[in-house]
Amino acid sequence: MSDRLTTDFWVSAYLNRLRLASIPVFVTAKGDPTAGVVMVKLNTLDGQAVAYQRSYDLMRGERAWVVLSEGDERQVDEAIAKQRSFDPDLWVIEVEDKAGRHLLDQEGLT
């Protein structure tokens, strides 16, 4: 998220972009509206999933989406639950797409 955007504003924009692309999306955990961290779970509807979180890339000097966990959906859900136990202000957004589209690599979302 940009320093100028609140988390709920970014989440709203992300949800709208996904819906415009006809990609089903759900907010499964709502965090702090101003400064909560966002985690995106990509569910490919085949028992597999990937959880992405924002991290600071020291080599590039910018924020980037990185994989927190991937593989069996239950294991990914456990990793997300563990993060939520540390950070109750964490937002979790679940994207459901068989093709694996999440749009996090698009301009304005990176």
Helix proportion: 25-40%
What's the overall average pLDDT, rounded? 92
> What is the subunit organization of this protein?
single chain
Termini separation: 8 Å
| CATH architecture group name | 3-Layer(aba) Sandwich
Note the total helix count: 2
Going by CATH, the homologous superfamily would be: Protein of unknown function (DUF1491)
Query: What is the CATH class designation?
Result: Alpha Beta
Q: What string gives the helices and strands in order?
A: HEEEEHE
Question: What structural class should be given to the helix and strand makeup?
Answer: alpha+beta
Q: Main β-sheet, in a few words?
A: 5 strands, mixed
Number of strands: 5
Which fold name corresponds to the CATH topology?
hypothetical protein tt1805
Indicate the proportion of strand residues. 25-35%
As a whole number of angstroms, the C-alpha radius of gyration is: 13 Å
InterPro entries: DUF1491
Pfam families: DUF1491
Organism: Litoreibacter arenae DSM 19593
Keywords: Hydrolase, Protease
